[in-house]
Amino acid sequence: YVPYDAGINENVARTLEYAYDDWCIAQVAKKLGKTNDAAMLEKASQNYKNLFDPETRLMRGRNADGTFQTPFSPYKWGDAFTEGNAWHYTWSVFHDVEGLIDLMGGHKGFTRMLDSVFVVPPVYDDSYYGFRIHEITEMQVADMGNYAHGNQPAQHMIYLYDYAGQPRKAQWWVREVMDRLYSAKPDGYCGDEDNGQTSAWYVFSALGFYPVCPGADEYAVGSPLFRKAVIHLENGNTIEIDAPENSSENRYVGKMAIDGKVSERPFLSYSTLLEGAKVRFEMESEK
After folding, report:
1. Does the pLDDT at position 287 exceed 70?
2. What is the phi/psi pair of residue 6, to 5°?
């Protein structure tokens, strides 16, 4: 890990993102048959665990001698993080969500912590910057607790409910964000549009799925926005997405079938979609 006291800014953010980067490079190494390199990189991708503080169940700056940085506030923006705080960056384990779930004590503990992001008030500590940066303002305006959709590090978070066996919570919050934080007005974006990421989140989410871990053959399912959508792929194949009962009330997925076969998991595979597929969502309201 990058030590907190090594004079390197944003050390937690760097460590977490380097771990994911190492995992991505490992996938390339596997494709190239570089098994030793792949194993080394896979091991390095687990470095995120070094920054998990079991006491707070959050990612936290750690000194070179192994002690955690003190004093610690999960509401402090910047410092060990990049334009965010511990509530946002703790979830930046795109490549090993199951490992993060285990660190938090299983599905129940993980879900409780994820729920907490939306429950804690939108308070903040801007002492690192010395002024309130616009990302903080955007979090407050969104009025979703400490969830900061206006900045990229937190945008995958909602879909993590799928991994913890709570897809309905993902469906609820995905639809809330689409409905409340996006609009066809001059102020229709809720924050940064860095490299098209905030738009890409909406496009994927409106279709009903999202790439939590780019580089993996998997999309997490949310709540499609339309009753029908068709994607024409470059290879000539077509993906048809049908959700005939879809409405503002029917935001929950009762069943999802892929080419007529009901899926037991709230995930779609890239390889399946690439071949062309018919995805049917049976939408329903809360019962």
Report:
1. no
2. -95, 5
